[in-house]
Amino acid sequence: MKMVNCALVWHLLALLATVRAHSEKRAAILARRMVNLQSTLHFNSLRSNNVPVSMAEYYVASDSCPDVEGLFDNGDPVLLLSKMSTSYKNWHENGTVTMTIEKPTLHYDGIMGKPRGVFFGKLKKLELSSEDNKRLAAHFLVRHPDARHWLPGSDESHVHDTVWFEFVVESVYFIGGFGDRAFIGNISGDVYHQDLRDGESYSCNHMSSHDYTFPVEYKQDISALPDESFFGRFFQAFKNIVMNY
Ligand SMILES: *[C@@H]1O[C@H](CO)[C@@H](O)[C@H](O)[C@H]1NC(C)=O
Ligand SMILES: *[C@@H]1O[C@H](CO)[C@@H](O)[C@H](O)[C@H]1NC(C)=O
Hints:
Elements: H1 2-37, E1 40-46, E2 52-61, E3 77-82, H2 86-93, E4 98-102, E5 116-125, H3 130-143, E6 162-175, E7 184-188, H4 189-193, H5 209-213, H6 230-242
Antiparallel strand pairs: 1-2, 1-4, 2-3, 3-6, 4-5, 5-6, 6-7
Helix pairs in contact: 1-6
Bound molecules: 2-acetamido-2-deoxy-beta-D-glucopyranose (2 copies).
One 2-acetamido-2-deoxy-beta-D-glucopyranose binds next to strand 7.
């Protein structure tokens, strides 16, 4: 009896591992879409007294800036930080920072059921040619028209101390939401960065300001995914329970 149980457990674990690899990729697709559709994040940093603080910052996904040399369509968020900001100062003091991004809720329909993630990695200062600086600024302004007042090197700029950064994602702790489709766990940097546009894409590359007012993908992101097998869904549910979510 004990032997049978043991075999069953091993079998379950092996299945779980397979399901997990599969769902990590699906989670990565969801995470990339979320990062593409969103444009503000919470910048989590440490004060000098080690107290964590979180500030809202603007970003644009590198996937939305395909014509900028030095960016790689890999889902890394690109931020514009003022050297006077708390986020910049804390990062300058202590490079330990993370980003939190979540899918906004249109109405009160509960953030607990929505995708969200903590992004681990390193902030890298971008050195861009003046042409690329302009291209990046154009993409950034589609999402953040008000940022025209503090673009780096802009004549119009009232603030002359802003810097472009790429947040190089090393891993993501992703929570897909509740239910049978939700993935909760780590996505590795490699899986997150790979080209995930097979068939159904998270195509936001050619997003104009018009598209942004009402992103078509907004409602499709989860339903557009292929259905998982019964076992996939069963183990997903099982994992959610095991992980006490
Ligand atoms: C950042 O702060 C943490 C916590 O105090 C510390 O362990 C780490 O060494 C600091 N890193 C740097 C680069 O100062
Ligand atoms: C995710 O990775 C972190 C750091 O490697 C680890 O501490 C954590 O337990 C992992 N979480 C899950 C759910 O695998």
